[in-house]
Amino acid sequence: MLVANGLVKTYGRHRALDGFDLTVQPGEIVGLIGHNGAGKTTFVEIVTGLVRPDAGRISIGAYDALRSGRAARRLVGVAPQEPALYGSVSVRENLRLLAGLAGLRGRHRDAGITQVLEELQLSDLADRPVGVLSGGQRRRVQAATAMVGSPPLLLLDEPTAGADPETRSALLAAVRSRAEAGAAVLYTTHYLPELVDLDATLALARGGRVIARGTQEELTRHLPGELRVSFTDPAEPELRLPTTDPGGDLAALLASGRTPASVDVHRAGLDDLYRSLEHAATERTEARDAAA
Ligand code: ATP
């Protein structure tokens, strides 16, 4: 549904995107993650047509998004990182306006609005001006504007930033159900557990390109976890052993004659993946500097 190849975008002397490749299939949720400045928002802005790349190709459905931008963008629902809503008009009016811009009319538009208001638990707020809503409620309205009319491609740029748990779970449930109905979803966040909840494919951006893509299991499998062992004897400290083979290492410990009171296996998670990438990048920079 979304295929991007070799995108380059330069601001002055800074390359925000430097050969960025990414695909999102129908029904797939891709969690785009990466440190501040990795290029995530620039990519979203290119897909939405706000920013034009210096090089590269991008297609949305059957359209070349750089040549047939208007037709391609009709397939896209966007919740930008910075809320973009009309504060003086009601939630429903905001949805009507944005659904209209997306080409929805009449009964089809009203049915889409009713559905998305229910999904995001906004029905009670539908007739209130957006300007009087709380930050979390506005986030939900912003996500609703992306989802109204059920576009086949959803771009959600940190939709849960600053959201309370209720808002977060309403949003995640709506995203899940849209993907189950066949939408392709690109989701950026700094809150990694959300991506585990969504069972998302992960794409890791760094320095303006995607450097790894896969499920959490695929991306973290090679990383060491930790075996945490405590003993009944208070004189013995708790042991923390990095391990890629918890069963084998535990067997070796038992064979050494020491009897643990408890054993906990901590598997590597996304935070460990982030740290390992940071570490690898620092090592590469140091090696390059040393060779220079
Ligand atoms: P964050 O997680 O903080 O939202 P991000 O991964 O979305 O970061 P981008 O906003 O895409 O990162 O920015 C990528 C790089 O491009 C950054 O170094 C940023 O300063 C730069 N950049 C982005 N937009 C502009 C602009 N309009 N003018 C100049 N530089 C820009």
Secondary structure layout plus pairing:
Elements: E1 2-11, E2 14-24, E3 29-33, H1 40-47, E4 55-60, E5 63-64, H2 69-73, E6 76-79, H3 91-101, H4 106-119, H5 135-147, E7 153-157, H6 165-180, E8 184-188, H7 192-197, E9 201-206, E10 209-214, H8 216-220, E11 225-231, E12 239-243, H9 246-255, E13 260-266, H10 270-291
Parallel strand pairs: 3-8, 3-9, 6-7, 7-8
Antiparallel strand pairs: 1-2, 1-4, 4-5, 9-10, 11-12, 11-13
The structure holds adenosine-5'-triphosphate.
Adenosine-5'-triphosphate is lined by residues 11, 14, 16, 34, 36-42.
Describe this structure in words.
The strands form 3 sheets. This protein has a 6-stranded mixed β-sheet, sandwiched between helices. A 4-stranded antiparallel β-sheet has the order 2-1-4-5. A 3-stranded antiparallel β-sheet has the order 12-11-13, with helices on one face. The protein is globular, with a radius of gyration of 23 Å. The protein has 292 residues and is α/β, with parallel strands linked by helices. It has helices spanning 40-47, 69-73, 91-101, 106-119, 135-147, 165-180, 192-197, 216-220, 246-255, 270-291; strands spanning 2-11, 14-24, 29-33, 55-60, 63-64, 76-79, 153-157, 184-188, 201-206, 209-214, 225-231, 239-243, 260-266. It binds adenosine-5'-triphosphate (ATP). Adenosine-5'-triphosphate (ATP) binds next to strand 2 and helix 1. Adenosine-5'-triphosphate is lined by residues 11, 14, 16, 34, 36-42.
